C-alpha cells in the first residue's frame, strides 16, 4: 500500500500525489526530493517503485521479505537501510518487532514498513513542520525515521526496566514465588531487543562519520546523537540482562533457603507428635509394677506430661528459629 | 564420481562431456569456463582433475579428506574454498554435516562434494536458467553454491528454533519432565552449526570485499547478501544457545521447587497418619482410671476423633498450600 | 540557577559577575576565559547561556536533560563533555548518581550540574588557588572538574570494597545468614558505577592524547593521570564483581552444607526418640509369657534401657559428627 | 645427547657426522644446510652447539630449560621457535607434555627435544624421502617438525573427543554415577592442550605470512595448512570444553532429579509401614467396647486389613510414579 | 630512606655516596649514570631527589603514594615505571603486594620501593657482577629490576599451583570437607596477582618493542624474555582460576551427592527401627483370639522375628548400596 508520496523543496512539502512517475518528473532543482511511504507493499507496488527509482533487485528483495537483520548497504549513490522496529505490548508484557527498509538516493526516499510498530505517518507530519531537519534533504528524512525508531527503543527499554524491578521485588519478597519462568521470558525479550539494537550500531556510526553519500556533513551531529541513544539502549539492555542473571541466582538461593526452613519446620512439628507418642508407648507397656498406672490422676498426669513436653519443645524450637 | 562437467559461455551451458581434457581444450573465448562436479571422488579421479586444471597438491589433499574447516585459500590466480554443508534429520532431531570443496580458476570451477546434504545437481540446474548470475562466470557459480549452502543453514537454524521452543514448553510445563538430556543434545547440535557458520564468515567477507580474483566487482553485492544471511544464522545460533542456558537454569529451579513441593506434600501426608497414631497410643495406655475406656461409645468416639483430626489437618494443609 | 560566573586571566580570577553578555565582552587577551557554573538551570537560563556562547542545540538539549551517557563530543572548536557524578549514601548503603555537562570553548567554560553529588563550588575555590593548573585555561578547568569527579569515584569504590568485605565475613560466618539479597543489591550498585566509569574511559584517553582542541599539549600528563585513576576504579569494580560472584557461589554452597548438617542432626534427634518407642512397643506386647513384665523392677529396667539406648546413640552420633 | 647431525644439499642428505664444527665447514653452496638434532642435551653439549652456530644466549637458556611457552623469536637472521609436544597416555587417560626448541638459521637447523613425545628421528627419516619439502631448506625442516607436532595435537584431541563421549554416556545413563571428578580431570587435560595450542597460533600465522627469514615464499602454503590444523585443534578443544561444562550442568540436574526420585520412593516406602502401624495402634487401644476384639477372626481380619492397605498404597504410588 | 646511591661507568660500579648532588655532578662521560635506591622515602628525601634529577611532580606524587596501577609513562626523555611486587606468606597462605617506582633518565635511575617484597639490594649486587647487562646503562638496571620482580611473580604463581593441587585433593577426597571458603580465598589471591600482572604486560611490550628512550635496541631481547615470563604468569593464573571454578562446581556436586547418600542411609536406618515397631504394634493388639500370644515361646519368637526382619532389611539395603 502506498501510504503517502510527496515532493519536498527547500525543507517544505510542495505537492503530494500517488503517481510516482509524475512525481519524480517534477524533481527539477538540486535539493528537490520525493518521499514515497509504503506499508507492506504487494509485489506489483514494489515492482513499480523499483522501476521508477531504479532500485537494486537484491535490496528490493530484502525490503519485501521481513525478518532481515538491521544493515546499511551502498549500491552506488543509493543507500539501503534496514532497521527493526520495536514496541511493547502491555497486555502480555511482550516486545514485538517490525521492520522498516529505506532506499535513500540523491533525490528520493522510499520507506517500506512492515508490522504495526513505529508508524511513520506522524513522523512525516512532525518532520514537515521541522524545516531545519527537512532542509538536509533525503538524509534528513533518514535521520527523522531512525531517530523515531531509536526513541521507541528507549521506550521499550524503559518498560523492561520496570519489569526487571517487579521481578526483583518478587524474588526478594517473603512470598513463595516461582519467578524462573518470568525471568526466562524477560531474558528472551531482552535478546529480542538486542538483536534489533546491536547490528544497528555499526550502520549508525557509519552515518555519523559522514562517509555515506546521502548524509551531508552538517547532518552528522544528528546521527552522533542517535548513535549515543543507541549506545544507551544497548548498555541498559546488557545491564538488565546481568541483573536478571543475578536475580535468577538469588531466586535459586531463596528456594534453597526456603527448603531448609521448611525442612526444619517439618522436623520440629514432627517432634511435637513423636515425643508424646513415646510417652503414650511407655504407659502402654504391660509391666505388672508400674505405680503411675494405679494413680487416680495417672491418666491426666500423662496427658499433662505430653502437653508439657510438646510445649517445651515448641518453645525450644521457637527460640532456636526452627519454627 | 564425476557427476557433471559442462562448458559455459555468455551465461549459458554450451556442452556437457565427461572428458575433462577435451572440455578444457574447448575453452576459447574470454569468459568461457568449465564446471566439473565431483561427488566423493576416488584417488584416480581427483588425480586426473588435478592434472587437467593444475591444482595445488595441498588443496587437493584437503578436498579429498573430509572434516576440514571452512576456509578460503588463494593459490596464485586460483581460489580454493571449503564449506560445510548442514542438514537436519527429522527422524532423530539431529544436524548432520557434509562438505563441499571448490577450486575456482579463471576458466574453470571444480566442486567436490562429500556427504548427503546440499546436493548440487539442482543448484546447477537452477543456475543454468539464471543467465544473469551465470554471466558472472566462475564467481557466479561460487556464489550460487555458497548461497544454496547458506540457505540450508537458515533452514537448519529454523528447525532448531522449533526444537528450542519445544524444550521451553517442556521446561515450564507442570509435568515432571527431565529435560537436561535434550538441552544437552541441542547444545551439541548448536555447536555443530557454529563450527560450520563461524569460520565461513571471514571468507565470505573477503569475497564480498572484492579482493578475490575470481569474483568480479559487479558480483560483490551478491556475496554481501550471503554474508548477511550468514550473520543472521550466527546471531540466531548464539541467541538460541543463550536461551538454552537460561532454559537449563530454569529447569534446575523447577526441579528444586518441585522437590520442595514434594517434601511438603509428603510431610503433610505423614502428619495425617502420625497424629492419629498418637491418639491410638494414648487410648492404648494402661491407666486404671481412664473414663473414656469405659464409655459405651468410647471406641467410635476415638475413631471419630482420629478422623476429625486428620480432616482438620488436611484442611489446614490445603489452605496453606502444602497439599 | 547560575551559581557563579567569573573571568580568568593568567591563571587568576579577575572578576565575577552574573551578567554573562558583559562578562564575555571583557574577554580581550588570548588566554582570557569565562567560567559559568549552572546548577539544574531552567529553560530560560540555559537559552540565555546558549545564546551568549553560541552552543550547539543538540548539546544544549543533552545538558538540560539528565540521564545521558558519559561522552565527549566536538562541535567545531568547542568540546562538549558529559560526565556522571557518583556519591555513596551511608544511610542505605547505596550509590547515587548525578551528572555534569561541560561546554569548553577557546575562551569559555560552561558547566551544568545535576543532582547533589560532586558539588563544584569548592572545586572552583581550590582551582583558583592553583595558578599552575588554572594557567592551562579552559582545559585546566576541564581537568580540575574531571579530576574531582574521578576522585569521588575512587571514594565510592573504597566504600564498596568495605561492603564486599562485610558480605564476605557474613557468608563465611557460622551464623545462618541470608546474604543473597545483599549480594544482589551490591551487584546492582557496581553496575551503576560501571555505567559511569566505563564510557568515560574513551573520552579521557582522547583528552590525554592531546588531539582535543581545548587541551594544550602541556596539560596531557594531567589527563593521563586521570585516565590512570579511572582505570584503577574500573579494575577494582571488575574485581569486586568477580569476588561477589564467587561469594554468591560460596553462599550457595554454605546453604547446601547447612541443609545437609541439619538433615543429619534431625535424623540423629529422631533416632533418640524412635528407638525407645520401639522398646516401649515391645513391652506393650500382650504375650502371656514375658518374664520381664513380672519383674519387680521391670518398669525401671525398661526406662533405664530406653535412656541407655538413647545415650548410646547420642554418643555415637556425636562421635561421627552427626550431632 | 646429539641424536643425529647431517648435511643436506638440494633436498637430499649428503653426509652425517657428529663433529659439528667439521659439518658446518662443509656448508659450501647456497642452499646447503646442517640439521643437528639434540635430545635433552647437557650443558656442555649445548654450549658446544651454541658456539658452533653462534646462538643467542637467551635463546639457548630457553632451549635448555623446559616449561617455556610456545613462541617464535627472531635474533637477526636466526629464528628461534619453541613448541610444546603432546601425547596421550592410554593407561591413565592423561595428556603429557614435552617441548621442542628449534634454532633455524640460513644454513643450519638445531632442534632440541625434551620429554618422550613426538620423537623426531622418524620425522627426519620421512623428510629425507620427501625431497620437495626438504628442498625448501631449513624452512622445510621447520615445517616438517611443526607439522608432525600439530598432527599429534590432532591425535590427542581425537582421544579427548572419545573421552568426552564416554562421559556423556555416563552422565545420561540411568546408573548412579559420580562423574564430577572425571569431568574435572578432563577439563584440566583440555587446559593443558589449550596452553600448547593457543600460543602457537600467532607464530604459525607469522610463518605462513612469509615475513620470517627462514621461510621462503614458496613454503608459505604449507604453513597455512599447519595454521589451519591448529585452528581446528583449538576449535575442537573449545567445543569440548563447552560440552563438558554443559555435561557437568546436566550431571548436577541428574543428581537433583535422582534425589527427588529417592525422596519420593522413601516416602512411599515409609507409608507402607506407617499406615499399618496406625491400624495396629487402633486395635491396641484398651476400650472396653470394641466389637472387633471379640470376633473369632478379628486378628486375621486386622492383618488382612493392614496388608490390603499396604497393597492399596503400593498400587497408588506405583501408578503415580512415586515407586 | 636512601638505601644506596652509586655511579656506574662502562658496566661497573665506580663510586657510592649518599650526596646525590655531588654524585650527579660526577656524571661526565656518555654512558655514565647514577642509580639512587630509596625505600619508603619521606617527603623531604623525595623532594631532594626530585630536585636533583628534575622529576615531574605527577610522577613523584605517584611514586610516594603506594597503591598505584602498574604503568609506564614518558615525560620527555625520562621514563617512569610503576610495578607491583608480590610475595607469598607461607604462614597464612596469602599473597602480599608492594610496589616499586622507577625513574629512568639518560644518566640516572631512581628506584623507590614500598613494602617488604622483592628487596632490591641483592638485585643491585647481582647486577654489579653482570657487566654485560649493566653495560646497557639505565635500561639495564630497568631490566634487572623488572626481571627480578617478574621472577618472583613466577615463584608466587608456583605456590598457588600447589595450593590449587591441595584444594583439588580435598574436594575429591571422601572426607566431608567444606572447601568453599578456601576456594574463595584462593580466587581472591589470584585476582590480586592478576592485578599486578595484567596491567604490566603492555608496558613490558612497549619496552621490548624498543620505542622507549631508555632502552637501547640491543636490550630489547631481554625485555621480550621478561614479556614472555609475564605471559606465562598470566596464562597460569587464568588457568588456575578456571580450575578453581571447575573445582568449586565439583565441590557443589559432591555436596549434593553426599546429601543424597546421607538421605538414603538415614532412610535405611529408619526402616530398621520402624518395621520392628510395626511388629511390636501387631502383638500389642488386644484381640481375644491371637494364638501367638499364648505360645510359650511367643515372646522370643516375636523378638527373633523383629531381629530377622531388621537383618533382612540391612542385607537388602547393603546390597542395593543404600547403606
CATH architectural name of the largest domain in chain A: 2-Layer Sandwich
C-alpha geometry of chain A? rod-shaped
What is the percentage of strand-forming residues of chain A? 15-25%
Radius of gyration of chain A: 35 Å
Instruction: Supply the CATH superfamily name of the largest domain in chain A.
Output: CorA soluble domain-like
CATH class of the largest domain in chain A: Alpha Beta
Question: What would you call the quaternary organization?
Answer: homopentamer
Q: Figure out the total of helices of chain A.
A: 10
Distance between the termini of chain A: 69 Å
Could you walk me through the main structural features you see in this protein, from its secondary elements to its overall organization?
- Five copies of one chain form a homopentamer.
- The first copy, chain A, is of the alpha+beta class and 323 residues long.
- Chain A folds into two domains: 2-254, Beta Polymerase, domain 2, CATH 3.30.460; 257-320, Up-down Bundle (Methane Monooxygenase Hydroxylase, Chain G, domain 1).
- Helices cover 59% and strands 17% of the residues of chain A.
- In chain A, helix 6 (138-172) runs antiparallel to helix 7 (180-209) and helix 8 (220-282) runs antiparallel to helix 10.
- In chain A, 46% of the residues are buried.
- The mean pLDDT of chain A is 90.
- Chains in contact: A-B, A-C, B-D, C-E, D-E.
- Chains A and C meet through helix 8 of A and strand 4, helix 7, helix 8, helix 9 and helix 10 of C.
- Chains A, B, C, D, E: It is found in: Cell membrane; Membrane.
Amino acid at each position: 500500500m502506498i501510504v503517502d508520496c510527496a515532493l519536498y523543496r527547500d525543507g517544505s512539502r510542495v505537492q503530494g500525489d500517488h503517481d510516482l512517475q509524475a512525481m519524480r518528473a517534477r524533481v527539477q532543482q538540486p535539493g528537490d526530493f520525493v518521499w514515497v511511504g509504503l506499508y507492506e507493499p504487494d509485489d506489483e507496488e514494489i515492482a513499480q517503485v523499483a522501476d521508477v527509482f531504479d532500485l537494486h533487485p537484491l535490496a528490493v528483495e530484502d525490503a519485501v521479505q521481513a525478518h532481515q537483520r538491521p544493515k546499511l548497504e551502498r549500491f552506488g549513490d543509493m543507500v539501503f537501510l534496514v532497521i527493526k522496529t520495536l514496541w511493547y505490548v502491555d497486555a502480555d508484557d511482550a516486545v514485538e518487532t517490525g521492520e522498516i527498509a529505506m532506499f535513500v538516493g540523491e533525490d528520493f526516499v522510499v520507506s517500506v514498513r512492515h508490522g504495526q510498530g513505529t508508524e511513520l505517518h506522524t513522523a512525516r507530519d512532525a518532520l514537515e513542520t521541522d524545516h531545519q531537519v527537512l532542509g538536509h534533504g533525503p538524509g534528513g528524512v533518514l535521520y527523522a525515521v531512525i531517530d523515531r525508531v531509536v526513541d521507541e527503543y528507549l521506550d521499550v527499554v524503559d518498560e523492561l526496566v520496570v519489569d526487571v524491578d517487579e521481578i526483583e521485588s518478587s524474588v526478594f519478597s517473603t512470598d513463595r514465588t516461582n519467578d524462573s519462568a518470568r525471568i526466562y521470558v524477560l531474558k528472551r525479550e531482552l535478546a529480542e531487543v538486542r538483536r534489533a539494537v546491536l547490528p544497528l550500531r555499526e550502520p549508525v556510526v557509519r552515518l555519523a562519520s559522514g562517509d555515506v553519500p546521502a548524509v551531508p556533513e552538517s547532518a552528522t551531529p544528528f546521527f552522533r546523537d542517535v548513535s549515543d541513544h543507541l549506545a544507551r539502549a544497548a548498555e541498559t539492555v546488557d545491564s538488565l540482562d546481568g541483573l536478571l542473571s543475578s536475580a535468577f541466582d538469588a531466586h535459586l538461593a531463596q528456594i534453597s533457603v526456603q527448603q531448609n526452613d521448611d525442612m526444619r519446620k517439618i522436623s520440629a512439628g514432627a517432634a511435637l507428635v513423636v515425643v508424646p507418642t513415646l510417652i503414650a508407648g511407655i504407659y502402654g507397656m504391660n509391666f505388672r509394677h508400674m505405680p503411675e498406672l494405679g494413680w487416680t490422676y495417672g491418666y491426666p498426669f500423662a496427658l499433662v506430661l505430653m502437653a508439657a513436653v510438646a510445649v517445651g519443645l515448641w518453645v525450644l524450637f521457637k527460640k532456636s528459629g526452627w519454627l
